[in-house]
Amino acid sequence: MTALSARHGARQHPPRHARRAWLAVAVAAACVAAPLTATTSLTATARPASAPANEPARSDAAAVACTGNAALDRPATASSTEGPFGPALAVDGDPGTRWSSEPTDPQWIRVDLGTVQDLCRVELVWETAYGKDFEIEASDDGTTWRTLKTVTNGSGGTQVLDVAGSGRYVRVTGTERGTGYGYSLWELKVSTGDGGGAPGDPLPGGGDLGPNVHVFGPDTPTDQVQAAVDAVYDQQEADQFGDGRHQFLFEPGTYPVHVNAGFHTSIAGLGAEPDDVNITGGVWADAEWFEGNATQNFWRSVENLAVTPTGGDMRWAVSQAAPMRRVHVNGNLMLHSSRYGWASGGYIADSVVDGEVRAWTQQQWYTRDSTLTGGWAGTLWNMVFSGVENAPPTSFPEPAVTTLDTTGIIREKPYLYLDGQDYAVFVPSARSGTRGATWDGGTTAGTSVPLDEFYVARPGDSAARINQALDQGLHLLLTPGIYELDGTVEVNRADTVVLGLGYVTIVPTAGQTAMRVADVDGVRVAGVLFDAGATESPSMLTVGTEGSTADHADDPISLHDVFVRVGGAHAGRVDQAIVVNADDTIVDHVWSWRGDHGAGIGWDVNTARNGLVVNGDDVDAYGLFVEHYQEYNTLWNGERGRTIFYQNELPYDPPDQAAWNHDGVRGWAAYKVADHVTQHEAWGLGSYCVFTSDASIVSDNGFEVPRTPGVRMHSLLTVSLGGVGTYEHVINGVGPSASGTETIPATVVSYP
C-alpha cells in the first residue's frame, strides 16, 4: 500500500482498523442534521403509481374480527402421548376425541398454523386431567418461542384466553398438573385476526410508492430536480446508520443534473433499456465525508440508466453493497475517490463503459457480463471478471487479475420501469454461458409483471398483512423504509418476485427468521437489507427446506443485492445469517456483514456464527462479500457449488487466540468447503485479517477444502493488514504466511 500510494501521489493513510475508529465522530456529526421531510424531498413532480398518490392510509384495524379456528385439522405434535390419544385428536374439531400426555411435568402440545398469523385468542377444553399451571407460547420457526399468556391456579374446564401476538406455531406448555394424571385436552382452538382463519377482503395490488420514492419526469424543471437530489444527499452523505431510505426514479428523458449518491440511496431509470434515461451532469459517489477514504462507502446503488458525465468522468468510489447494474457510462468510470484514498471492493453487472475504467486504489472488484470498451486500468489484490468483453486477461498474482470467458447460469435482477404509462416490474430470464450486457445490441429477455400484481408494502405493515398478500398470489414490492416485524415473511408461491426499493430494511424484533423462501421454483428476492434484531434469530434469510432435494434447474431461485447487517445501527444477533438449502439457487451479489464499527459492536454483543451457509446442491454464487463472522464466514455443504469472486475480512475482535480456536486448529477459515463434498470450484478469493484486540492471533488457513480432485480453487490470496495478525497458510497448509507491516498478499494460483 505504501508503494501504491507513492506511485499515484496519494497521501498516506493509517491502517484500516484505525480508520474505522474515526466513525464515531462522523456519525455524531451526521445525527445533528434535521430529518428530511416529505415536503422538502418531493420538490419535483412525481408520477402517481396505479393508485392515486393521496391514497388514504391503510389500517390493520379494518381487518377481520377475532374469529375462526386456525388450528382446525392443522399438524399437531406433543411432548408425549398416552395410549392412542395423539395430539391430532385435539385439533380435529371433534369434542369427543382428545390428546393425553404421560403423567409427568412438564408436557406440551403444539399446532402448526402453516403461516405466521396474528393471534388473538386460544381456547382450551380440558378433560378431567387438566393443567393447573401452563403457558401459551408462539413461534415463527418452531425454535424460538415467546410467551403470550401465563396461567397459574387454573381450574380446568373450558378456558378462553385472549392473547396478543403472532406466530406460525402455538404451543401449550404445562408445568404443573391439576391431577395425578397427565394433561388431557378435548380441543385446542386458536383464533386469529388479520391473515388468520377467517380473512377479510383481499388486499389490493398496486398503489402509491410512498414519500421516499422521488420520481422525476423530463418536463420537471431542472432546478427542482437538482434541489431534490441535493436535499437527500445533504441528509444521507454521512448518515451511515441512520433511518433515511430513498429511491430516485427518472422517467425516460435527458436530465442535466448531478446526482450524488449517499447512504441508503438508490438511483434508477424507468426506461425499458438503460439508454432511455440519460443523466448528463453525472452520477457521483465520492468520500469527502470521510476525507477521501471510500472503505465505508456502503449501501448505495445505480441502475438502468445512461450517464454522460460533465468532464468525461463518472466517479463511483464505493465499497461493499454498492452495485452498478444496467448502466451505460458514456465516458470514463473512476472507482477510486477524488483523493485516491483506499476503497474496499465493489460490483458491476450488465453494463457498458465506453471509456476506461480506473480502479487504482480498489482492493478488489468483481465485474460480470459487461463490456469495457476502453479497457481497465489499476489492480491491487483481487480483480475478477466473468463474461466481460475487453476484460484484461488472467495474470494472477501479478497483476492480480482473474478472468473467465463466460459466467455460467445467471439471471439479472428484476427492476421497476414504465410499461407505457404504467409501472411494471421486468423480470429477466435465466441464461447460461453468458457474456456481455443483456441489452447491448438487443433487448433483455424476460417477462413484464404489472404493478397491480404486486402488493406495494409500506413501513408499518405487519408481517401478517404482507403474508396475507403473498398468500393471495401477489408479488411483493417493498417501498423504502425500515420494517420492524415480529413475524417471518413467508414466500411460499413459485415464481414470486420480492423487490425492495431504496435499501428497504427488515428488522426482526422477536428473534425470528426475517424471511423464509419455500423450496419452490423461480422465486426472486432482490434489493433487501436485513438488519439483525437484539434477540438472536436463527437466520435473516433462509431459502428452501433443510434436506430437500427438489430440482429447480429449469427455473432457479435467485437472490440479487441481498445484504445482511449484524450490529452497526444497533445491537443485533443471528446464528447463521443467510442459509441456502434449496438446490439450483443463484446467489447474485450479497454482502453479509457482522459489524466492526457503529453501535452494538463487541465479541459478546453482535454475535453471529456464519455469514453464508450453503446446503443445497448446484448453487452458483457470483460476487460474495462475507465479513467478520465468528466461525466459518462461509460454510459450503452442498455438491457442485461454484463461486466467482469472494471477498472476506475475518473478525476484528476475537479477544485472544484461546477464544478463537476449534478442534486443534487456530482460527476459522474464511471459506470452508465441508469435508464430505466431492465437487466444488471457485475463482478469485481473498481474505484479510486485522485482529485489533490481539495482534498475535494466528489463523492456520484462509481457506479449507477437501483434498479431492473434484474440488478446484483458483486465484487465492490472504492479506495481513498492517501485520495486525497472521495467516499461517493460504489454503490447507499450502502457500506462504501472510504477516508483516508491509501488507503484502500471500497467494496460491491454483489448488490442488
UniProtKB/TrEMBL annotation:
Keywords for this protein: Signal
Pfam families listed in its UniProt record: F5_F8_type_C
Position of the signal peptide: 1-38
Entries under CDD domains matching the protein: GH55_SacteLam55A-like (cd23669)
Region: Disordered, residue numbers: 74-105
Domain of life, per lineage: Bacteria
Domain F5/8 type C: 59-193
Protein name: Discoidin domain-containing protein
InterPro entries named in the record: FA58C, Galactose-bd-like_sf, SACTE_4363
